[in-house]
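Sample entry (666 residues):
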Amino acid sequence: MIKLRTLCLSKALCLVFFTLAGAAAQVIPGRYIVELTAAPAAAGSAGLTGADRALAEERRRTLAAQQTVVRRAIEQRGVRVLTGMDTAVNALVVEAGRGEVERIGRLAGVARVIPDRAVHGKLDRALVLDGVAEAITRIGADRAGAGIRVGILDSGIDASHAGFQDDALAAPEGFPRVSSDANSGFVTRKIIVARSYETLAADAAGYGVDVRDVNGHGTSVACSAACASHVSPLGRISGSAPKAFLGVYKVLGNNGSGATSLQLKAIDDAMKDGMDVLNLSLGNELSGDPQDDIGAKALNAAADAGLIVVCAAGNEGPDDNSINSPGFAEKAISVGSSASDRLLDIEGNTGPNDPNAISPFSSRGPSPSANLKPDMVAVGDNFYTAASTFKNPDASYTVTQGTSFATPTVAGAAAVLKAARPSLTAAQYRSLLVNSATGLNGADSAPLSVRAQGAGRMNLAASLEQPLAVEPVSVHFGRGGPAPSLMRELTLTNLTASPLAVTVAVQSFDKRSLPVISAAPSGPIPPQGSAVVTMQFGGAELSGEYQGVILVANDANAVVARVPYWYAVRSSAVAGFSVFKLPESAAAGETALFYVRMVDSGGVDLLDDSLTVTPVTGGGSVVGAEVFPDAINMVAVGVKMGAGGDNVFRLKSGSASRDVTIALRR
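Predicted structure, serialized as tokens:
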């Protein structure tokens, strides 16, 4: 047995443990992001068109001069500057030794220096359950996403696939755009941007030299969002937005791995390319503070500038508090996965399935800052979509699963919504998608936790008809003591041309305590006008978590806005363990590493130094257990594999325990 306070059993094992800790945390050796003090070009912009675009261009010129000064100072120290970003974030990417990092951090104009980190990737019935098929029928297939640009930040694309051909489309003026001549062969009438980042990739051999998708993930994701309607071996399929344009930004290499620096550069490029929607079906499980995460900061800036940002929540479910970075970005739509109504294999064999379940792998909230994520779910199980022939020449389609595929379904829906209801803000589109969702109930008819489903499963048909936008899209009462006295406000905006009367009610999932609506609109909300709903949450001797939805009905139609709320009483008692990056197998004598986050009964992260790790079966031993400083309330655990079969290790803190198994690889 080893306790959290004990770091290592021997100096040699200690060195092994910490080497493994760094590798498994996926810090890219010698690569750093230098964030500068000046605000990026998009800061404060209401959008990147018209006067805002001119203002952003002026800021870029100023930032270019400032970056030049810092760049020269860095290069004078013998450090190589790889690239810079100026729109979503103001930063440089450098290759430097540890000795130079501290000196760079002291330079004038430098805010901080952070390690570059690795990130990795995380349809037919899906479109029916998510309300997409009904929406497309209602507005017409020829208008579904027409003119909208969807940026896919992923592993590239198989541009020759039938799903990315549409002779009826014509690229907008100034397009196509490519990052190199090598990418000129990967644009079509639908794919209007092809950018790759081979010169920035830390692993050049594993990345590739252009946007071709050898990994396969990006092709499947892009099709889920915006495949043109076409005939597949199992019948006619399309993405959510069959008439949308695609921008391809290869941030994941052929090996499926990428880096935060590539992600930031691609966000910058996508904003400059005028993308309307961004899809990020990728993430990093070992996340730090969402308020300080540079990827989340970039996506929030993109949302402020008018882009609809959609991110995967992660595939670390059903563990609590497992939302990935950058999926926890406040202004992004964080998407979890719900089940399909049928099981499906690639030959087309089907079977019944419960469509109201949350996929077991879908990450659960809250986020490490105790915010309510995911925002919503969409079908991501038994997902039939395009496959890249660069990966397998004999397979153009695949059945797959993951929040990676639920996410682009929402991104494509965002394109359909923006095309059908133009001139709204990014925040309003976000609300229309999130707050028009359909709530999911379990087998006992009880509502599923808001930490699993957010507002519910996407219903694009309802989003098209929703007359109200809500800000914020969920109510974070957060975590606190047993006797809270809290007040929150919701702003309701009437998006129609007629006065709109509303009624506000609260549905509690726990039947224990309700937010009290202390003020609500007393009369109709004027056309394009707003009104505020005020609610109080309080009580004494509360315990555990409190959750439900605020329901806002209107007199124009039957579409009800659902706004999830959540509060957790802070506890010092560990109720469970969330485990990250647990190896499936390891050889006898091999030292393996995994990560543990302790959570209370409300899923809130905490740190208890009474944690012990004990070998149970298999003959393994524990090398060490230490607080991992680069993530919130997370412990790195090192174990040495025994030769006696599968190795089981027991995590224990107080009355909570969990056994984890690493298969013995022979």
